[in-house]
Amino acid sequence: MTTHDTGTNGTAVRTATPKDWIPGLIENARYDLLSGFIIFLIALPLCLGIAIASGAPPIAGIISGFVAGMLASLLSGSHVTINGPAAGMIVIVLGAVTELTFRGALAVGVVAGGIQIVLGLLRSGKMTAFFPLSVVHGMLAGIGLIIMSGQIHIALGLQNPRAHGFHIFTAIPPSFANLVPIPALIGLTSVLIMIFWPMIKLGIAKVVPAPLVAVIVGTVIATLTGAGPLVKLPESFMAGFSSPDFSKILSGPGIKWIVLYVFVASLESLLTAEAVDKLDPWKRRSNMNRELLGKGAGNMISSLIGGLPMIAEVVRSKANILQGARTRWSNFFHGFFLLAFVLLVPGVLQMIPLASLAGVLLVIGFKLAHPSDFMHALHIGKVEFGLMLITAFTVLLTDLLMGVALGIVLAMIVSLVRGTSLGNLFKPDMQVVEEGETITVKFRRALGFNNFVGIRGRLDALPRGKKVVLDFTGVQLIDATAMERLYDFEREYKDAGGQVERRGTEHLRADSEHEFGTRRELKGAEKKAM
User: Fold this and answer.
1) Same domain flag for 473 and 326
2) 353: nearest Cα among 209, 520, 486, 223
3) What's the CA gap between 155 and 191, in Å, rounded?
């Protein structure tokens, strides 16, 4: 496959798909080395901040970062995604640390990583197709709200009270009333830099990432004023390693956190890989089973030596592409630079104020729960907006497992109310007919998140490079998740050199003007009015 890159003079330059592995390193080192260095600058403050917010030692974030880059990247099935500790796992790790201690949480990470490896070997990568996207987005928004509600206290110079339920809201006003001036100034400065630095049009803003600028400015203020608290690291690098404690791994909390680790880490990684595939200039498609295997191996090793769990991280991955990365080696280099930095100049990290890191995480949490994401769900449909809203606030006020479970149950109830039969709830009704160079896929009854795993499996098995006709003549319902997933299939199939055509949609009415809005069969009176 080839693509057209835009050169510095504005002309299109035709380039071949980058090679992988050692040939790819030789061919693209100049691109991947530079991008890896830029991503290292982004990842360094995030690794520290995410570890602290997770209730773990700061060094745990660095350990996860270099293991993710230098090991997981070589085993994973994606090309330009960046692995590492991420904000989406803060709530999970913090909960495990609170109930099981940090070493107990490490044991959870080891077992969860082993399960991810097994899931990869069992080719379970397609299981992400089951979850309704509105619930997934609601889960991420809920995590963002929890991050914001906790980090606001640290950004004001106080400790995170780790409140639960409605106390999450009532704990915030007292912190504003009792803020510590200098740390609060550092936190506010970090927030403003995170917001306004990316808006600067100068070249330096594209090379020096906002989190790094926020940390540098905060460190300067803290050094001049002598204000703390600051990041604390062990006396030596080897002293930062910790071993897991498996004594509570089979307890109720141990099993609960294993399930949540596997669920959130796997789901976020696979969804990120899907999103990054769409941004990849060469339209390469990740091997989702290898993604699970690579992240599982990385999580096992990271947790065995005292690191946080890792996922494929979307913001760093987007930045990686924008910086011109071409292969998995940019991920490797970013991990290498993290390791080298903590080995060579650990004292620099201990000058960073916690309020500065909290300000960075406040903005990241806001982006996870950005109002535009809720508006996007509303444009797709009122049901999708409702599911996202309910999931987000249930996650915030109870816990993540309860929020996601409630969202999925409600989505299934909606599917049944809309006309999906029990026999069609998890099993798709479809037929594949191949005639020469044309393949007709005839769908019947309902297509939804609940049965899309089977649909996607059949679609992925189609031979590439042919004309595929998606026939919806016998369909009564296509929900929003299925609409978006079908769009993804069409794009991927076309990128691989095939053709896709839709037929038989005239009898379906859209619930909204959005292209992913739910489609339902017109009733008798509605058909006559057409």
Assistant:
1) no
2) 223
3) 9
SS3 state of residue 227: coil
What SS3 state is found at 5? Answer: strand
Claim to verify: residue 326 and residue 454 sit in the same structural domain = no
Cα 463 to its chain centre, rounded Å, is: 30
33, 331 contact by CB (below 8 A):
no
Residue 334 CA to residue 42 CA, distance in Å, equals 10
Rounded alpha-carbon distances, angstroms, from residue 359 to 197, 212, 403? 14, 12, 26
Each residue's pLDDT tens digit, 463-504: 999 999 999 999 999 999 999 999 999 999 998 899 999 999
Number of C-alpha atoms within 13 angstroms, CB side, residue 61? Answer: 27
Query: Dihedrals φ, ψ of 398, to 5°?
Result: -120, -95
**How buried is 409 (Cβ within 10 angstroms: 0-12 exposed, 13-18 middle, 19+ buried)?**
exposed
Is 131 in the same domain as 274? Answer: yes
Cβ neighbours of residue 213 under 8 Å, at least 6 residues apart? 193, 197
C-alpha distances (whole Å) from 364 to each of 67, 220, 251, 484 are 23, 22, 33, 26
Confidence of residue 128 (pLDDT cuts 50, 70, 90): confident
Q: Is the pTM of this model over 0.85?
A: yes
Angle between helices 133-155 and 181-196 (to 10 degrees): 140
Please check whether residues 359 and 430 belong to one and the same domain: no
In the block, residue with structure tokens 């791994």: 249
Q: Contact 310/67 with Cβ under 8 angstroms?
A: yes
Contact (CB, 8 A) for 117 and 296? yes
> In terms of residue numbers, what domain contains 513?
422-529
> Is residue 481 a contact partner of residue 453, using CB atoms and an 8 Å limit?
no
Q: The domain that contains 438 carries what CATH number?
A: 3.30.750.24
Residue type, 292: L
Is the separation of the CB atoms in 78 and 286 below 8 Å? yes
- Our count of domains for the chain comes to 2
384 in any annotated domain: no
Which helix or strand (DSSP H or E) is residue 376 part of? Answer: helix 371-380
Tokens of 79: 């090309």
Facing residues of 190 across strands? none
